[in-house]
Amino acid sequence: MKCLIVEDDYAAQQLLAILLSDFSDCTLAPDGCEGVHLFTAALDEGDPFDLVCLDIMMPKQDGHETLKQIRQIESERGIMGLDGVKVIMTTALHDSQNIFSAFRQGCESYLIKPIRRSSLLQEMEKLGLLTQSSS
Length: 135
Fold this sequence. Notes:
By secondary structure, this protein is an alpha/beta fold. The chain has 5 helices and 5 strands, in the order βαβαβαβαβα. The protein has helices at 10-20, 32-44, 63-76, 96-104, 117-126; strands at residues 2-6, 25-29, 51-54, 86-91, 109-112. Strands 2-1-3-4-5 form a 5-stranded parallel sheet, with helices on both faces. Strand 4 (86-91), helix 4 (96-104) and strand 5 (109-112) form a beta-alpha-beta unit. It is globular, with a radius of gyration of 14 Å.
């Protein structure tokens, strides 16, 4: 499995990479602009990401705009519905406006920081990215 971690906080980036290291090859992006670039490049190379872990509060481009662009790129390429990348928002924001906005823009899951391994793996299993035996 391939995962793109889009997170501006170095410690949070590293924590997610460690939590996912047994299950995924992780690529790190420090902001949404770089995340969209890496996402597009992976599609162009025919080796798309299976999962994107996406923070909301980032410089240059926030997670909401990044998610919107990811879904737009998929739409332009005919990637729809369940064929799209699975997106888990990983953020400190837990207000209803941000949560509802993220789901309206196409995320599949929303985890509040600090991210716990058990919660992350549970969400990945729900999304069909893990089997019970692998977690």
